[in-house]
Automatic annotation (TrEMBL):
Residues 1-29 form the signal peptide. PROSITE patterns: PPIC_PPIASE_2. It comes from the Bacteria. This is Parvulin-like PPIase. It comes from Pontixanthobacter aquaemixtae.
Amino acid sequence: MIYSNFSKAFSAFAALTFAASPIAVQAQAAPGATPSNALNIPTDGPSLAQNDPNNRSATAVVNGTIITGTDVDHRVALLVAASQGELPPEELARVRAQVLRNLIDETLQIQESAVQEMPVSDEEVNQRYNRVAAQNFSTDPQQMDRYLLGIGSSPASLKRQIRGEIAWTNVVRRNITPFVNVSEEEVREELARRASQRGTEEYRIGEIYLSATPENAQAVANNAQQMIAQLQQGGNFQAYARQFSESSSAAQGGDLGFLKLNTLPVAMAEQARTMQPGQLVGPFEIPGGLMIMVLIDKKRIGMADPRDAMLDLKQISIGFAPGTTEDQARVRLESFTNAVASMRGCGDAEAVAATIGAQVVGNEITARDVPEQLQASLLTLQVGQATEPFGSLADGVRVLMLCGRDDPQDVQDADFDTVMQEKEEERIQKRAQRYLRDLRNDAYIEYN
C-alpha cells in the first residue's frame, strides 16, 4: 500500500457532519469535484432505486403524520452511500425496517417540539443544511443537492433529519437539561478515581449490539455475519451502528468513548485486550445477544500518546515507466536506495534526489494520521533518518525521511468543571432515551 500524499485523505470516504449532531452521509469523490474535505464524490453515483417523486404511498402514520415509502427510500439511499455500494436484498430489507423505526422516532421528536411550542423554522433548517454543504463543497455548495439526488436521496430527506435533530435538542434543553444535577461530591470522587488510575489503559470502543433469543438466534447470527462482511468491505461503522444497533450507544454511532476494560462485559473485555486500533471483530456472544466491535483507539490515562507527535516529513519517491521490467526496476531501486542512504539529512534530500530523478514532497502531520503500518517505524526514527523503501512497480517506490518531531506533552488531568459537564451530559442522554421511549409508548402508529 502506497503512502501517496501527506493529506488526511487515506480513506476514500468522509462523513458530512455538522456541529450539533452528526449525519452519516458518505461518498466517493468525482473527478473535478473539489469539496473542502476531499470527499471524492462521483458525478454518477449509484442510485439505490429510481424513486418516483409522485409515489407517496403511506408506509406508517404517526399520530396523523404520514411517512411514505419515498421517505424511507431516500433515507435508505444515504446509508447505502455510506456503505460504499449496493446491499444484498436481505440486508436491504433490514435496513428499510430500521430506517422506518428511525423515521418514526424522528417524527415523534418533531411533533413533541411542536407540542412544546418550539417548532423548528425552515430558516433554522436551511442554515444548518447550508453549513453542511459549505463545509464539504466550499466551491459549490449546491453540489450537495446534486449529489443527494444522484444517489437516489434528496435534499428534503437530509433537511428532515436536520429538523428532527434540532427539534429534539430543543425538547431536551427545555425538559431535561435544567433538571439534571450532579453533586460536587460525585465530581470529587470521579477526579480521585481518575488520579488513582493515571497510567492505566483506556479503550475507545465502537459497538453494534444485536439482541437475540433462542428462537431467533440463528437468524440474528446470519444477519450479523452479513453486516461484518459489509463493514470489512468498507461500510461505515457509525452509520451501521446508528441504523442497526440496539444499544443506547446507537445515537452516538456506537461510540462508547474511552473506558476501562473492567467496565465492559467479560466477552467484550477479552476481545478488546488483544485488539489493535482500527481492528474489527465479531460477531461474538454476550449476555442477551451478539456483539460486533471495533477498537477505535486506546490510550494511557493522563499520559501523552506518542501518536500525537507532530512529524515534519519529506517523502522521496520514484516511479517506473510503463513497460519497465523487473530487472530494470531492480536496478533503479538499488540506485534509489543507495542515493537515500547517502543523504546527509533533510537539507541534502532535494539535491541528491535530483541526481536520480526522484521527487521530494514535504509536509507536517501527526503520527496518528499516518497509515497504521507506518506509524511504528516512523516513531522509532531519529531526525535525518528514513524508512525502508516501500511501494510497488505499478505505484512507485518511496521513503519517508524524518526532518523534525514535536512530542506531545503529558495530558493534563480533567478539571472540576469538565468532569461536572461530562457527568451531566451522561445523565441528560439517559433521560432523553427514557423520554423518547415514553413518546413511543403513548403514540398512535398505524402501519401500511
